Amino acid sequence: MATDITTEITVREFDLQLWVATDLLRLRSLHYGYWGNGEPVKLDFRIIRQAQARYTKLLVSTVPPGVRTILDVGCGVGCNARALTEKGYKVTSISPDGNHGKFFQNAPEPLRFCQSKYENFSSDERYDLVLMSESQNYFDADTGLAQTRRLLTPGGFLLICGMFRKKNTREFDQVRNVEEEYLRKAQQHGFELIERIDITPNVTPTLDIVRMAKEEYITPLVSAAGNGKRWKLAIAGLLFRKELGQLRRIQRYYEEFSDSLFFSEHVSYLKLLFRCKEHGQKVN
Q1: Mean pLDDT of 38-52
Q2: Kind plus residue range of the DSSP H or E element containing 223
Q3: Other C-beta atoms within 10 Å of 202: how many?
Q4: What CATH code would you report for 3-203+261-276?
């Protein structure tokens, strides 16, 4: 579903997790949903899409006044970028996964897509805001923060919305960044934290839906593809054994992220807004 519950696994240039989200589950976004009090949580894709739209609305509403240009890092299928473009921002979206590029075909003029890892991205343009929606865990924190400082206009903003481990423990070690360590590094790179909002309770219903979807779709698919009782499935297992191996890996990944209480014990889902100190200002 989310970039941040969607690891970038590409087999023969075919992203199985992208296929699960957009083709099997028919979702229009890859990121988490945002739930308010009393809103239903069930395996109803209309409700899921509404929750994902609320998440996007939350991001758009957080963009500070005066921002005109935005770099969307780890853009997924572009739902956030399109929403920002509709509000009048000029958006450049980047992703290392070429499969995401097809979702930017016929995009409006202020929106463009570039296939690149963030650490390798180069541009003569400087941006007023860098957005990392569930993407800050895909690269080293120091590398990402240094790159962000290079790409921002003086006094520009870094908006992060995603997962941070509460402590440096083995649980959820797929989540690269520990909050306290990341905030310390951000300060060292010249970023001042101006807003921190913990939205964990609002997004963990997504994990309950992940569990429902896993039980409804992923587990039966893996079981059927792997049992070999029918000759067609046996042939499929031989022809697509690499893909099936990746699908089983996806299944294991989702199993770890389908217990919302265990998740909340070890992980915080945060919305962080930083401002980059202008060159010449003291960095603590």
Answers
A1: 80
A2: helix 219-227
A3: 22
A4: 3.40.50.150
